[in-house]
């Protein structure tokens, strides 16, 4: 503005010069007229100089008033700015704040403390990291703020610097912070998310078995009561329930109700069990819910995956699958054993069809293999030989408990040296199209003897009796997972009976399968059903000898003493849970001794579950056991493991035995408080 006025005041000076030039021209042509014009020009110069001198103080006064008013207006506008605004020094100390900021935090104009006292999220360390501009989202007193923090350089050269990071250190700067209230926006976004539809599938696990356990005239009433409870439960969520089959329901409801169902821990599962109208068997449900996808199609795929996971884990539970995680609820009861063998026959025929198209078969169990994994692998090995296929068993490490069983597969008994191979040999033999990989006794790829093999071979078959978790072997062409089975050896024994009429097990093979069932059932004391004894009877007919198997499974004195010491040092936590440590010194297979100690602890009166920790190969192995009152599988899942309701385990890394024990106790406390156990 000052420069503009200076420009206007130079106009009279320019006109004086013009008049002088004009006077000279006129004087040259008409001297008398020129003299007259010189006199008039002199009068003009005097008047112009007088006006300029007289108006100068006035102009200065007006400029000063304008500048003052302009500054006041700027300050007023900043002070009355609708957005909370604050100016801070490099250490976060408040230098100035506007009225909105003062009103919101109820501070005074003289407030010059650190911004951290008002907004704990905005720390000195955070400010020092800001080079140009930083965005932060916080919630303060139920108001959602979007903070914009800017570094302001006092020196113009710093503002124009290409490398701002260097300018931060070389020039003095301040921070300004704007607080944008986005509460309404976030509420709208939240409401939009809550209005999205979530799909669910509800299956009755034991439909046929439950109906068979009740009088025929009451069957329709039983199903009507189940229908009523399902409709009432999801009716509270303003959902739509559609019965798509006699034992299946499809439900759609708004996402905002999902959190409530999870907090309720899907009480429908327990509520349905309370239906008693003469039925001997309680009704159990499996619930699968898909959430978090942008499309309804993908959400339904999540729902299908969730219900498959719930059924694969034994039913009687709810599984919620989203794009980020999988959550489990329920699953506290043992799945009822199926009396029919139709599924085993179908799987046996499917396995035969797959193996017939391949040239070789590679069988592998889980790492640090046990007798159940080896026995099941031997069964598949025999099935492949019957079809005339080359077969191999991947075995990286042979434990002391496994060696007596493995050593019997020698040339004297008619087995080649190449029957057992390690992971490197397996990778060399693997062929993308002519090899089938059969995984037994695990359904987690990271737990297998050679996880890389699963990425090379396209044809993968899975046989397992453990409940499924979030990590599963993907793209398996055949998957047979039955959590109610006592062992994988039991499953393979059934499959072999339907695999081929020509199949005949050798004594060594029958012993290995029988030993697997014996170990996993703790001498037929845990998880045994009718089909378990039928499988054992088949193996006895095939040549399995009980005395021979018992001799193979005997422990050495060092292992027995370690097991006894672990039982002696056991701590009874919360009066119900036995926790102890099994030493690994001088033991070839300390994890086996730990598992045996966990079994023995259950023989003590009042113990509901046992947990034995073993430090081995840089990891902490936890073996957990229970009889019927506690689901140790969901406890081990909290620690990253898994297994069955009564037999489970986990592996912990980067911690000591004491830290692992504390973590186990903390997990037990949390689950007891939440009502999970």
Task: Fill in the keyword field for this structure.
25 helices; 6-stranded parallel beta sheet; alpha/beta; 677 residues; 20% strand; 6-stranded mixed beta sheet
User: Which sequence of strands runs across the widest sheet?
Assistant: 7-8-6-9-10-11
Strand count, sense and closure of the main sheet? 6 strands, mixed
Number of helices: 25
The quaternary structure here is single chain
Beta-strand content: 15-25%
Helix content estimate: 40-55%
Query: What would you call the shape?
Result: elongated
Q: What structural class should be given to the helix and strand makeup?
A: alpha/beta
User: Over all CA atoms, what is the radius of gyration?
Assistant: 41 Å
Please report the distance between the alpha carbons of the first and last residues. 79 Å
Count of β-strands: 23
Characterize the structure shown.
The structure is a single chain. The protein has a six-stranded mixed beta sheet with strand order 7-8-6-9-10-11, with helices on both faces. A six-stranded parallel beta sheet has the order 14-13-12-15-16-17. A six-stranded mixed beta sheet has the order 18-19-20-21-23-22, with helices on both faces. The two termini are 79 Å apart. A hairpin with a 2-residue loop joins β20 (609-616) and β21. The model has no long low-confidence stretch (mean pLDDT 83). Helices cover 45% and strands 20% of the residues. It is of the alpha/beta class and 677 residues long.
